[in-house]
Amino acid sequence: MKKEIKTGEDIITLVDAFYKKVLIDPLLGYFFNTVIKLNWEVHIPIMYKFWESILLNKGNYTGNPMIKHIQLDKKATLLKEHFTQWIKLWEETIDEYFTGEVAQEAKKRAQLMEYLMLSKIEKSRESNFIQ
User: Fold this and answer.
1) Residue ranges in the chain assigned as alpha helix (H)
2) Any idea what the CATH number is for the domain that residue 22 is in?
3) How many domains does the chain have?
4) Which pLDDT tens digits describe the chain residue by residue (131 residues)?
């Protein structure tokens, strides 16, 4: 049965289920498995904190995802279709496990991130870009 996103445990469920899909996804898995070769024991707790801060208003995330994605784009070009697939998997995962206002907010926030990241990444490719 679907439930509302209310706790850190809910965030863990969401993030874990999402990244299981990402890792085996033909379009996105390449970035995680080949290009950046993440240390998942380090990365996943950061993602928990990131989404907790956004969805549960727990101010414990201090990173800069924009810079990380701009750096990734320099190694392997990130395109609109990558972000579209990211959103598709994210929303699919939310719909499998959760319902309610926070679940809808998680979708809205991801869509906003998609737009902002893609815009910034595209601007970062210009010769006069300042970080």
Assistant:
1) 8-24, 29-30, 40-55, 65-75, 80-97, 101-124
2) 1.10.490.10
3) 1
4) 899 999 999 999 999 999 999 999 999 999 988 898 888 899 999 999 999 999 999 978 888 988 888 998 899 999 999 999 999 999 999 999 999 999 999 999 999 999 999 999 999 998 776 66
